[in-house]
């Protein structure tokens, strides 16, 4: 029996880093869809929330609480996602630099803008809530500390900022979907096929 029988082969050693990298990519992809779901709830819920009649009382209050809580959750998820993304970039580009093609630069700039707005939109929501009233950002059953001081003079500015940032972000999401239209069409076909297989009574 060889004395090296218990040691790992070069192929096995090379496979482990690759499998770990694939695991990180799967984690990022999972977070991508969780965050997409959160932002969908924020957009749909935000539009519905501001159009609710004033006499809805507790229902409107609960809608605002849920909206702010999901906004705070997206900030936490984004922080974790950026941390993981940095690890991926470090492993991917420490040995070789990216090819700075026009397509790579365009994709990089688009994704950078999306990440900026993923942070800026909930931050502008914090700005609006804190400016209106101190201790006004709940995270479900907790109250988050203020990031901005209470200031009635800037409430309208904060409201406009949150509105326009949200819809500008939505525009970048549409651009992202157009950029990934082949994948979006493939995902749509798979979803339709999956729905066809579901038995309806």
UniProtKB/TrEMBL annotation:
Which GO cellular component terms, listed alphabetically, does the Swiss-Prot or TrEMBL entry include?
plasma membrane
Q: Which Pfam families match?
A: Ni_hydr_CYTB
Any one GO BP annotation for this protein: respiratory electron transport chain
Q: Which InterPro entries match?
A: Cyt_b561_bac/Ni-Hgenase, Cytochrome_b561_oxidase, Di-haem_cyt_TM
Q: Where in the cell is it found?
A: Cell membrane
Membrane topology per record: Multi-pass membrane protein
Per UniProt, residues of the Cytochrome b561 bacterial/Ni-hydrogenase domain are: 31-177
Keyword Cell membrane (UniProt):
yes
GO MF annotation terms: electron transfer activity; heme binding; metal ion binding
Q: Would you identify the family this protein belongs to, as annotated?
A: Belongs to the cytochrome b561 family.
Report the protein name in the record. Cytochrome b
Q: Which organism's genome codes for this protein?
A: Drouetiella hepatica Uher 2000/2452
């Amino acid at each position: 029996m060889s004395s090296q029988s218990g040691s790992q082969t070069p192929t096995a050693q090379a496979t482990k880093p690759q499998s770990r990298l694939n695991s990180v990519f799967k984690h990022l992809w999972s977070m991508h869809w969780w965050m997409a779901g959160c932002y969908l709830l924020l957009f749909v819920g935000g539009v519905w929330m501001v159009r609710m009649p004033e006499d809805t009382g507790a229902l409107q209050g609960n809608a605002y609480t849920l909206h702010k809580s999901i906004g705070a959750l997206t900030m936490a998820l984004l922080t974790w996602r950026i941390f993981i993304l940095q690890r991926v970039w470090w492993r991917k580009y420490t040995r070789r630099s990216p090819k700075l093609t026009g397509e790579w630069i365009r994709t990089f700039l688009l994704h950078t803008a999306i990440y900026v707005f993923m942070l800026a939109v909930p931050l502008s929501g914090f700005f609006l809530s804190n400016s209106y009233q101190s201790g006004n950002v709940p995270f479900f059953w907790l109250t988050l500390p203020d990031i901005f001081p209470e200031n009635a003079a800037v409430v309208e500015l904060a409201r406009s900022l949150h509105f326009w940032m949200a819809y500008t972000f939505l525009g970048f999401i549409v651009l992202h979907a157009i950029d990934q239209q082949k994948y979006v069409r493939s995902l749509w076909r798979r979803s339709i096929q999956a729905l066809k297989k579901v038995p309806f009574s």
